[in-house]
Design goal:
Two copies of one chain form a homodimer. Chain A is an alpha/beta fold and about 400 residues long. The first copy, chain A, has eleven helices and 20 strands.
Chain lengths: ~400, ~400
């Protein structure tokens, strides 16, 4: 008897037709492949948002544990409905909730982190049932109260349960065929990536590609759990998320992604003294604003510097206001949005020269002006005019040969 | 510090306006009367029906424990919303679910019975919180699975919790002012009853007056818990449900009620032998049909009897079919609906003669034909033509002086 962990997201359980579809996938795993299954499910799509709305009509503060009590009903409902359908089809099944397993978490209500999963009950119940349907996204605090894991938490539930059962892999079913080299709605030639490393997908995810929740990937990376991201509509191999050493083809660039959530703020005429950057970013950190790309220049006379950085678009006004009100000295401040951050990601970059050069050349050929550049070991990001997004993505996609 | 148990039904928590209304009641109990509260809530009105629908789209059999997992989300949601609102208004509160208390029940999923409530956690939490909002209608089986108590189960939760806390009473808030001498929509002179015995309300409830769930009354009767049925819209005394010895005014007739759910079946020409009634009713019991009123007559020659009884209207056809197919001998069978059962209820009947006589006389004066009569210690029921319902109810209401 092999145990498999499969996770189905909100769109896979959106309505009865879709639930019947995943029941077929489950049925074939049970009857043909003779596997015992732990199926982790999200709430039906739209339900969590509706529950958040219900809560927010009454209170804004989401650290009240009642928020978690309300939100957890979404997965409780979907897990029980799916289990009911399986039972109706004579596949012995039962739902199991976060507190029943238990999935022990810390007490950070609304965004709790899993501390430990006791898999004894799962193992015991799998002797009696063919399928356990786990309500994802939820756990229990040491005070015996329901916790929820924050957005995308069901992915994390699935990976953590796979680990607790000593498994080497887990399947995440979604409404796309896998992870793509770029957004297929913008880049027509975008193709499915067969295998991708944890590091790459983390860069892609934080840059706006939302297939897997970053925390689930971090957890999988930490414990070496292979994640198979695949479609719940087609029975085809999707994308394997693996360790770098398990990735055979180390492409220079694995994927290209874009994000429109950036505002650029430039401070000019800052006295060029040590500690000034710390003051500026400290001021923003205090009001909870996350700074992303940063570029500093020193002017010709060596006395003044200019500093450019990006913040989330919704924080732009707050950031400018706070800096103006602060005691930090500068000659002027200006901000700009309607920008787009384009990033190329690939573990192959580490051992390949000329990757950045090709990016800049490709954009120059299309007459696209680069406003800010930032790099990491496996990523190069540039900030460009939003209007040029589509041209840039397609040109880069071709330049790095991702259309194959 | 006094502890009070208050239960709010579905219509009292139907929407945010109503929830804010009950928050005011709670607030005044906490701030003015300095009470600590255990508030038991139902699901918002309509929610349980919607959840049953969700389930029944997938499966009809409701003994699958998943049914309870789904239905219990309704009270989980309303308890958490109410607790959130109280917290927002600085009334320290938390929700508490069946499994958290725990409310231990048997494993009759969808209609579990409470076995035991451990009130230690409630007592401990009441030191920290001013209000605990209990999700009614739910418990936990010995297998650590969620159970639900069946329709009206939240009333039962409230009474059982009051008992477990050693309290002598509990308040049930509803959308009416209390229990009435008759249905005010039909009998204009109907008045609120100030006090009523458990026995009387059980007769009234099972006869179609649905203010309190019979099981909650049985429980309250067993443990001597006084129930105060009152309006969540008006701050006025409602109806006290008490032991017979605590009821000072023992009216001959406390209330008059009607039910339209009866079909009359008559079997003629049955051989008058011992055991024949047992055969007839055994046949119906086997297919789960509840027989209510029964009258047997023997014909003049003493050899044949006729038997008349009532069954729920929805079972009429099944009952007739089953009897025709059985081996029971009779000359003919006929059935009739468009009937109405009128019942007068009152503990005072026991020590008063002439109660029945007045009923029959009153109906005769109005030219209303009585088709079947049945009586218990504190109740007389008659079956009449449905068309005469309003006339009968009003005439009897006046005859017994209930309009005061």
């Amino acid at each position: 008897m092999a145990i498999q962990v499969m996770k189905f997201g909100g769109t896979s359980v959106a309505n009865l037709i879709r639930i019947k579809n995943i029941a077929k996938i489950i049925e074939s795993e049970v009857k043909i492949n003779k596997n015992k299954l732990v199926v982790v499910v999200s709430a039906m799509s739209g339900v969590t948002n509706r529950l958040i709305e219900d809560y927010k009509k009454v209170r804004q503060k989401i650290t009240d544990p009642e928020y978690d009590v309300i939100l957890s009903t979404g997965e409780q409902h979907s897990a029980a409905i799916i289990s009911t359908l399986l039972n109706e089809r004579k596949i012995e099944s039962r739902s199991i909730l976060g507190w029943q397993i238990p999935i022990n978490t810390d007490s950070n209500y609304s965004k709790a982190r899993i501390l430990e999963i006791n898999s004894d009950l799962i193992k015991t119940l799998l002797k009696k049932y063919k399928v356990l349907v786990v309500a994802g996204f939820q756990g229990i605090s040491k005070d015996d109260r329901i916790t929820t894991l924050g957005r995308g938490g069901s992915d994390t539930s699935a990976v953590a349960i796979a680990y607790s059962l000593g498994l080497k892999s887990c399947q995440i079913y979604t409404d796309v065929d896998g992870i793509f080299t770029s957004d297929p709605r913008i880049v027509k030639n975008a193709t499915k990536i067969n295998s991708i490393t944890y590091e790459e997908i983390l860069e892609l995810a934080s840059l706006g590609s939302k297939v897997l929740h970053p925390r689930s990937v971090e957890l999988a990376m930490k414990y070496g759990i292979k994640i198979h991201v695949r479609s719940s509509f087609k029975r085809k191999t999707g994308t394997m998320v693996v360790k770098e050493e398990n990735k055979i083809e180390k492409e220079v660039v694995t994927g290209i992604t874009s994000s429109e959530n950036e505002s650029k703020i430039t401070l000019k005429g800052i006295p060029d003294k040590p500690g000034i950057a710390a003051k500026i970013f400290g001021t923003l950190a205090k009001i909870n604003i996350n700074v992303d790309m940063i570029v500093q220049n020193i002017t010709d006379d060596g006395k003044f510097a200019s500093l450019t950085f990006t913040v989330p678009i919704e924080d732009e006004k707050r950031a400018v206001k706070e800096l103006k009100m602060s005691k930090i000295k500068f000659k002027n401040i200006d901000s700009k949005n309607s920008l787009c951050k384009i990033s190329i990601v690939g573990v192959g970059m580490k051992s390949n020269v000329g990757v950045a050069k090709k990016m800049f050349e490709t954009l120059a050929l299309k007459n696209i002006n680069i406003q800010v550049i930032s790099t990491s070991e496996i990523k190069i990001s540039v900030l460009i005019d939003l209007k040029k997004k589509k041209i840039a993505l397609n040109a880069l996609h071709n330049a790095y040969g991702l259309q194959i």
